[in-house]
Amino acid sequence: MRHTNRAATAPWIRTRLRTAPGAATALAVLVLVTAFLAAAFPRAVDAYETKGLRHDIRTADASRSVLEVSRPQPGLELPQAQRDAEVRSPELTRVGAGLLKTLPAPLRADTASVAYGVRTTKPALADEPWLPRPDAVPPRLSYVAQSGLKEHATLASGAWPVTPREVTSDSREVQGAVTEETAAELKVKVGATVELLTAAQEPITVTITGIVAPRDPHGSYWSADPLLRTPSLVPDPEAPFPVYYWTGTVLLAEDAGPALLSTAAEPVLFWRIPPDPAGLTGPDGARLTSVIASLESGPGLLKVRETAGDTAVFATGLGHVVEANARMRDAISPVIAVAALGIGSVAAVVLLMTGALIAARRRSELALMRSRGGSLRGIGGRLLAETAVTVLPASALGLLLAVLAVGDGRWWPGALAAAGVGLLVCVALPLRTTLQHIRPTLHGAREDTVSARPSRWRTVAELTLLVLAVGAVTALRRRGTSDSGTDLLVGAAPVLVALIAALVLVRLYPLPLRLAMRPMARLRGAIGFLSLARAGRSSAGGALPLLALLLALATAAFGGSVIAGIGDARDDAALASIGADARVSGVGERTTLPDELVRTVRDLDGVRGVAPLRIEHSVALPETAAGDGGADGDGAAADTGTGTDTGTSTGSGSVEDVGAAAVVGVDPARYAELARATGLPAFPAARLKATGPSAPLPEGTESGPGRVLPALASPSVAARLGKEPQALDTLSGNFEVRVVGTVPRVASLATTNFLIVNSAALEQRAPTTLLLTGAPDPGKLHAAVEGSGKEYAAHLRSEERARYVNTPMQAGAERIYLAAVAAGAGYALLAVLLSLLQTAPERKTLLARLRTMGLTTGQGRRLLAFEATPQALLAAGGGLFTGWATIALLSPGVDLVPLALAGVAGSDASPVPLRTDLWSLGLPAAGVVALAAAVAGVQAWWASRRGSITELRAGDSR
Questions:
Q1: Of 885, 931, 879, 927, which is closest to residue 546 (Cα–Cα)?
Q2: Are the beta carbons of 885 and 556 closer than 8 angstroms?
Q3: Residue 747 and residue 678: Cα distance in Å, rounded?
Q4: Any idea which of 81-95, 136-150, 537-551 has the lowest mean pLDDT?
Q5: For residue 192, what pLDDT is reported?
Q6: Distance from the CA of 834 to the CA of which of 12, 286, 585, 875 falls in 20 to 30 A?
Q7: Among candidates 695, 813, 861, 750, which has minimal Cα distance to 333?
Q8: Mean pLDDT, to the nearest integer, of 584-603?
Q9: How many CB atoms lie within 10 A of CB 813?
Q10: How far apart are CA 366 and CA 386, in angstroms?
């Protein structure tokens, strides 16, 4: 039987985990949350970029996104049988299948919507007397023999067009169909016939056998060429004056293509391949652009011609769609990088603070091991092993949760981020702990912030960081984020600014404490003096906790300002588009509103004010007045606060190019009230008051000669008209105007060339637009307007505002910034908690000792609260200043248009700068102070429940 004299020893890791399960669990939870955020961020970016690319391709017009390969009709030198065979379905199907195989990755085809056939490119004149002629001009029709008609349409009436016998170039009778919209507009009925002339002027009779209804009218089959579905009334470019005629498409039987070869309508063979965006991802955008360029004029085109013929051409607008998506992505990425680097830096500092807390709690234990001969390598290895046991599974679990929470995205960026979090904790914690015990010590040195002197190395490091911060901010101010890709130095500018502020505040922190301790020392009570002395010597006021707080607060303020700027930009764009809270106008520009509709809208619940406007667009302006230096713009500017010297052309137009302007008749008092209610620039209503010969006329009365109306103009129009009266010929009457001032804009009017006059002075004053303030019920407003006729429409500011939140890329980036604000606030509060927990044992021991000297419970609570107040106020005040300074420094270089308004048709594309959001600045800072006070109060309450004997043990060195 074998015996051993070695004593049984328990495994180190199991012993440590059983000894301190709470600390291990807390570290694992922190690593789990941080790894989840780190892994979720790149996946979230990939997700919104992927959804944005798919959304842009899916919602683009099919005429832009479809891939079309076409080639001219077979050459006349070929035998007729061969020419006919090349345009029949079997050959077209073979070529189409070959083209699908030719498409390079990542380009994929929506095979269910692929269409091919023969179509005419030159519309043919249709002289049938039953066809409509709006301006006595006969319609012109196109003809197409396209595959898949039965799969993409339903038969509304009649029968499907077929080929009873084989159609050749010599055939003179074919069958066709039209859509319901074409039949309704062109008066086509089942059984009608249309003649199509051949090149030899022989008629081909096309019999309409059926009327079909598209299954998916907006799908690529029907929308790649909108005339397949819907006829159009177009102007005749050859007519000397504007005349219109109808144009539409007749759908021939699928195998009727050979009949078109004999016509002079220039038939071509085509294959339309709609892209399938379902398999695309955000990173595929660059490859997609390269592939499309190759297919248009590169090696890809050579492969297409090998399949479709040497004369085949490839055309698509998909490249422009992808490039627009890439421009938006490149504009958003730098702004997102600011949030990523900010939150990443905060998380790293908080993890380092956690390691510092653990190292402080185990200092005595490790000092004892070191004094008894323990090597740094052995101690570091044990610390690494016990840290890895909890950290690595937590990092893996965080990665798994990120993958489950954010489904779309590449896996390796998230895996690298989660691994980086685990590696940082596993390396930083043992390294920091072992470096403190290079030399065996019995007791650690006293950490006294007041008496500490910065070393030369620290000064050099601070100056280096200062130079980097100034360089990053200068680069961002000069270059901006809209015209450049992601730049780590520019993105790290808020982080560097917060870092410099933290280092400066730590250096300045002892000065107010020294000044405050002198008067406190003269007071009778000891609480104030003790709290300041403790605050100055506490390690909670070190650079690391303060850096974490400033980084978190600055990032939260930056993210909150981004969200606030996006909201403000969308609100301003909606107001600029509608002009007020709601607008009622005619569908046509010259449609006037009846008095009954005006009264009905004015009496609706929620309507506070109504401002009628009579708008007449494109009124011709007289020639530039020679010798005029401009209107009296200086006086206008003095009164309105927004006017400019009209002698100088500003705005979008100039004296040379302003040939027409919009004339707007307003009720000055009501419009001024509208301007005040909607936040528009102050409107000088008194300037439009007309007296004497220019006084208001009874409605319908013709004005006499020499009638001059005062007018407010845009700067460009005022510069053209000058100071003297100028005659205008309008539908509201003929009169002269004299510019008496300038205003920068008119509510609900997009043009910057306009004149504003008093509507009471016009011969015709019926309004064309009503601007409403208040909160009318949308349903009732729409019902009231629609009840007056289809020629009137109502638009609400809230409905216009809702248009700006539908783009997946914008919505995804906005959600990331919301998460950044929340994470920044959370890490700030966690930093406060960690800094207070690091000195919690010292405070509890201090209370126990002071209680033995007569300190009451209330005094103990005040002592801890006063001790925590300087650090909390320093962090809160520094966070407010750092956040405000970061936004003020970076706002000139940051344009939020891609996040707020990009991709919305008709939206205002003027720059959207950062705006400081007081709530994002104040709430996290207030939370820091409140949490510090709460933790101090809880510690005092908990210490009062425990006896002094527990804290004051024999041999305790604290």
A1: 879
A2: no
A3: 9
A4: 537-551
A5: 92
A6: 12
A7: 813
A8: 85
A9: 27
A10: 14
Q: Where are the beta strands (DSSP E) in 775-907?
A: 792-796
| Helices 12-19/376-405 angle, 10° precision | 70
Residue 867 CA to residue 870 CA, distance in Å, equals 7
Q: DSSP letters of 400-422?
A: HHHHHH--SS-HHHHHHHHHHHH
Q: Quick count: other Cβ atoms within 10 Å of Cβ 401?
A: 17
Query: What is the tens place of the pLDDT at every residue in 627-681?
Result: 444 444 333 333 343 443 333 333 334 444 667 888 999 988 899 898 888 888 8
Percent of the chain with pLDDT over 90: 24
User: Distance between CA atoms of 468 and 474, rounded to whole angstroms?
Assistant: 10
Overall residue count recorded for the chain in this entry: 958
The torsion defined by the Cα of 153, 157, 162 and 167, in degrees rounded to 10, comes to -100
Task: Label residues 564-598 b or e (16+ Cβ within 10 Å = b).
Answer: bbbbbbbbbbbbbbbbbbbbbbbeeeeebbeeebb
d(CA 18, CA 16): 5
Average pLDDT estimate for 42-65: 90
Per-residue pLDDT band at 301 (split at 50, 70, 90): very high
Q: What are phi and psi of 353, to 5 degrees?
A: -65, -40
Tell me what pLDDT residue 695 has.
58
User: Residue 96: which pLDDT band, with cuts at 50, 70 and 90?
Assistant: very high
Cβ pair 768, 587 in contact under 8 A: no
3-state secondary structure at position 382:
helix
pLDDT reported for residue 640: 40
Residue 322 to residue 328: CA distance in whole angstroms? 10
Neighbours of 125 (CB within 10 A): 13
Q: d(Cα 755, Cα 721) in Å, to the nearest integer?
A: 10
Q: How many Cα atoms occupy the beta-carbon half-sphere of 434 within 13 Å?
A: 17
In angstroms, rounded to a whole number, what is the distance separating the alpha carbons of residues 493 and 470? Answer: 8
Short-list 528, 634, 585, CA closest to 766: 585
Pair of tokens at residue 623: 């020639």
Query: So what's the pLDDT on residue 591?
Result: 83
User: Hunting for tokens 């011709």 — which residue is that?
Assistant: 620
As a whole number of angstroms, the distance between CA 870 and CA 685 comes to 55
Q: Whole-angstrom Cα distance, residue 345 to residue 366?
A: 29
pLDDT in tens, 752-800: 888 999 888 888 888 999 999 888 888 889 888 888 888 888 999 888 8
CA-nearest of 424, 435, 423 to 376 is 435
CB atoms within 10 A of CB 241: 7
Please, are residues 596 and 788 in contact by the beta-carbon 8 Å criterion?
A: yes
Flag whether pLDDT at 53 surpasses 60.
yes
How far, in Å, CA of 247 to CA of 235, rounded?
Answer: 10
Quick check: helix, strand or coil at residue 102?
A: helix
- 174 phi, psi to nearest 5 deg: -140, 165
What is the 3-class SS of 522-556, one letter each residue?
HCCCCHHHHHHHHHHHCHHHCHHHHHHHHHHHHHH
Residue pair 615/664 in contact by the 8 Å Cβ criterion: yes
Q: What is the pLDDT of residue 645?
A: 37
